[in-house]
Specification:
By secondary structure, the protein is α+β, with helices and mostly antiparallel strands. About 35% of the residues lie in helices and about 25% in strands. It has 3 domains: about 1-55, no CATH class; about 80-160, K homology (KH) domain (GMP Synthetase, Chain A, domain 3, 2-Layer Sandwich), CATH 3.30.300.20; about 165-225, Ribosomal Protein S8, Chain: A, domain 1 (2-Layer Sandwich). It has helices spanning about 10-25, 80-95, 125, 130-145, 160-185, 195-205, and strands at about 1-10, 30-35, 50-55, 100-110, 110-120, 155-160, 185-190, 210-215, 220-225.
Length: about 230
């Protein structure tokens, strides 16, 4: 669904960033309109900047107040375990603490626990470039593994951000590969976290004529797409 938010801040960049966080999207995924950028005369009487940002976001589930729902029966997976219950409870507690309430679903397949959250105003739990979501995911993994003798992995998605982000990364990866094949020059992609880089590497493995590797130090490590020798 298409959603529009209007934000006001001291600068245009700050207002845009606030809007992007609420929508849970990247700048390149959004349409941005600057509504007011009156800087005044010689800096006097300077007003705050107002922007209107529109983007395609995941459909929002109806807000059910403070109640979180457990497993969606439509999911087919392994029987819920103590680790899954602990992970779900932790996510619900964290999100409730920052004022996000909605529908929470989970299921487990082998050694992976999938947790999805849909609700209104999920941007605060996603953060800039998904940084807050990554932090919550990391902590949820720690909680789940404290309740399991075997090593588990928790995949957490809030507001459809990860699914949408994966689609964006795949599109970016193919654009980069096409540029390399066309221009015969290396293409350095934007900085990404390890999980995002893995998506790009995996996607371009099947593209004939190009290869990928990573360069740089965290958190500025980037995928480089090059011609295959």
């Amino acid at each position: 669904m298409e959603k529009t938010v209007t934000k006001t801040a001291k600068t245009v960049d700050e207002a845009i960033e606030l809007a992007l966080q609420e929508l849970g999207v990247e700048k390149e995924q959004a349409s941005i309109e600057v509504m007011d950028e009156d800087k005044g005369f010689l800096g006097l009487g300077k007003k705050e900047a107002t922007v209107r940002v529109t983007a395609e976001v995941a459909d929002e589930e109806e807000d059910d107040g403070d109640v979180y729902y457990g497993d969606d029966e439509s999911f087919e997976g392994d029987e819920a375990s103590e680790a899954e219950d602990a992970a779900v409870s932790f996510v619900a507690e964290v999100l409730s603490g920052i004022g996000i309430h909605g529908k929470l679903d989970s299921y487990r397949e082998n050694d992976v626990i999938y947790v999805t959250v849909n609700g209104q105003n999920c941007g605060a739990a996603i953060g800039r470039h998904g940084e807050t979501l990554d932090s919550i995911s990391y902590l949820t993994n720690l909680v789940a593994n404290r309740h399991s003798e075997e090593r588990l992995r928790v995949v957490l998605d809030i507001g459809g951000y990860r699914k949408h982000r994966e689609e964006v990364l795949i599109s970016m990866a193919h654009k980069a590969a096409n540029q390399v094949l066309r221009n015969k020059r290396d293409y350095v992609m934007e900085a990404m976290n390890p999980s995002e880089r893995r998506i790009v590497h995996a996607e371009l493995q099947g593209v004939k004529g190009v290869t990928t590797h990573s360069e740089g130090e965290e958190p500025n490590r980037k995928v480089v797409v090059t011609l295959e020798e």
